[in-house]
What we know:
Layout: E1 10-15, E2 18-23, H1 34-48, E3 55-60, H2 71-79, H3 89-105, E4 110-115, E5 118-120, H4 122-128, E6 132-135, E7 140-142, H5 156-163, H6 165-174, E8 177-179, H7 180-186, E9 191-192, H8 196-212, H9 215-227, H10 233-249, H11 251-261
Parallel strand pairs: 2-3, 3-4, 4-6, 5-7, 6-9
Antiparallel strand pairs: 1-2, 7-8
Helix pairs in contact: 1-3, 5-6, 9-10
Amino acid sequence: xxxxxxxxxxxxxxxxxxxxxxxxxxxxxxxxxxxxxxxxxxxxxxxxxxxxxxxxxxxxxxxxxxxxxxxxxxxxxxxxxxxxxxxxxxxxxxxxxxxxxxxxxxxxxxxxxxxxxxxxxxxxxxxxxxxxxxxxxxxxxxxxxxxxxxxxxxxxxxxxxxxxxxxxxxxxxxxxxxxxxxxxxxxxxxxxxxxxxxxxxxxxxxxxxxxxxxxxxxxxxxxxxxxxxxxxxxxxxxxxxxxxxxxxxxxxxxxxxxxxxxxxxxxxxxxxxx
Length: 274
């Protein structure tokens, strides 16, 4: 990515092989507008085949990650002429978010979510599609949709994949809000920081691990993990063995083996983190 695109709802900062994406609507606790959805989708499309980007860090400005959907967009959809089925403005609004969150979920990059303050609704969904989620001490998580008379239509499947059906049912059907400690116990986040300094340290340690892992092997591994449970195991393992053979005979496999033998870091680890 030679030049970062201009965004109205996001702040983009490239730090070596890492793209930091900061949701920047602090006046509404980073509520997710249609424009933000479109901009996130554009960014993840652009970095997908960008070999200079190894990780994408998602975080929010002003002490909050994302408080959910934007009420103004909801009001705008309500003011439009009602349509039938997929012509309904509310369908289009909701489904656009689902397409974006699926795109983030399936990104070949390592996606890291830094969650602070409000992590609700769509923000909760984004946390659930990250490869690594780290929570700050102020983070509060929830699926409040049922308390508002609506349903978590696009995030629910990803929440189930993240924490299992029984816990997803408890959170969604009771509209619960939980703290970072419980979120970690449930597997929504992987680590909880007790301070901003510790949060920064945890992120830097994670990015250091990303640096040491081969980018193509990482992408292939992530794609393989996403297939588990959706395909017959025998066929999946057959295909995985083919990919293993291709990897070990490929440039990364050769370099990784040579680096191990020579007791040095592989060449892909030479990319700076800053």
